[in-house]
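User: Could you go from structure to sequence for me? I need the amino acid at each position, not a summary. Structure tokens:
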């Protein structure tokens, strides 16, 4: 058998390192390395090497242990039969409560969904206080209007209307101040799809709400038994009607979804409107007797230049 070198002695017949090889070191060496590994102070390395480019690049990367923790979820409509439950998927929710065929007599006037990342504000709304005092404001305005009309017989409506303008502006200020005082600050963008389109549009809105892309909640009207002849209301809510940045952000998302410039019955762009909850609770609707504008914003106004500063 020919002599071999020291390196060749550790090579087995098939060309691989043999199991008897000391490639990993002897027992004393391995024990010493294991001890060093277990007692190594990694912080001392970072402190003595902190100016090396590789270390500086690593330390510049944002670190967040929270990114690995599950985010808490909430549902303001949990246990509401007409609300989406956290235990059901969106397809299950849509299958259980399709707005086109879900009857008001079975589930109430609306179907609801909330943004699961929205943590409810513990401050409760005093809706009763808003309605009571707000009704007094409206009644006071109606009385003032009646007295003015009685004191100016024969005058055209435009003359009386001009004299009522400052009273009406004060009424608006008083109502919104009361809304702030009573915590009724929510508002909503409103869509009015035809019944045949309501399921599709509701799915878009509900999905975006669940994904945290719109406001904190949304709702859609159920079938009230009118034979699906009228438009269905869809509301997209945010917490504060005065938060113009949030109001505009939601509108922009709706616009990207193709839900803002829907064509009306005569083919013209009609846009969409935003209404404060305070006006809803006080039943200030289109054509109201106080001459108040029922909507707070329109999409056309919000998209106009300088609206945020107005």
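Assistant: Here is the amino acid at each position, in order:
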């Amino acid at each position: 058998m020919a002599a071999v070198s020291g390196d060749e002695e550790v090579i087995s017949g098939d060309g691989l390192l043999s199991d008897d090889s000391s490639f990993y070191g002897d027992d004393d060496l391995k024990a010493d390395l294991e001890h060093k590994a277990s007692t190594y102070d990694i912080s001392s390395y970072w402190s003595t090497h902190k100016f090396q480019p590789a270390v500086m690049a690593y330390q510049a990367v944002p670190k967040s242990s929270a990114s690995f923790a599950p985010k808490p979820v909430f549902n303001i409509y949990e246990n509401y039969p007409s609300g989406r439950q956290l235990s059901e998927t969106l397809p299950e929710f849509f299958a259980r409560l399709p707005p086109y065929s879900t009857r008001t007599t079975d589930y109430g006037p609306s179907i609801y969904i909330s943004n699961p990342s929205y943590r409810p504000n513990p401050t409760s709304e005093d809706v009763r206080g808003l309605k009571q005092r707000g009704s007094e404001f409206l009644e006071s305005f109606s009385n003032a209007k009646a007295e003015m009309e009685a004191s100016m017989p024969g005058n055209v409506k435009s003359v009386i209307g001009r004299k009522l303008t400052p009273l009406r502006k004060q009424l608006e200020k008083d109502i919104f101040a009361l809304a702030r005082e009573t915590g009724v600050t929510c508002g909503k963008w409103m869509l009015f799809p035809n019944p045949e389109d309501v399921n599709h549009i509701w799915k878009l809105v509900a999905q975006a709400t669940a994904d945290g892309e719109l406001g904190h909640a949304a709702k859609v009207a159920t079938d009230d038994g009118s034979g699906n002849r009228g438009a269905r209301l869809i509301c997209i809510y945010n917490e504060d009607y005065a938060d113009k940045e949030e109001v505009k952000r939601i509108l922009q998302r709706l616009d990207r979804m193709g839900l803002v410039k829907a064509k009306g019955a005569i083919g013209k762009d009609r846009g969409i409107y935003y209404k404060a909850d305070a006006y809803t609770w006080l039943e200030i609707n289109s054509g109201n007797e106080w001459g108040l504008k029922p909507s707070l914003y329109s999409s056309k106004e919000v998209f106009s230049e300088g609206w945020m500063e107005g």
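One structural detail worth keeping in mind: The chain has eleven helices and six strands.
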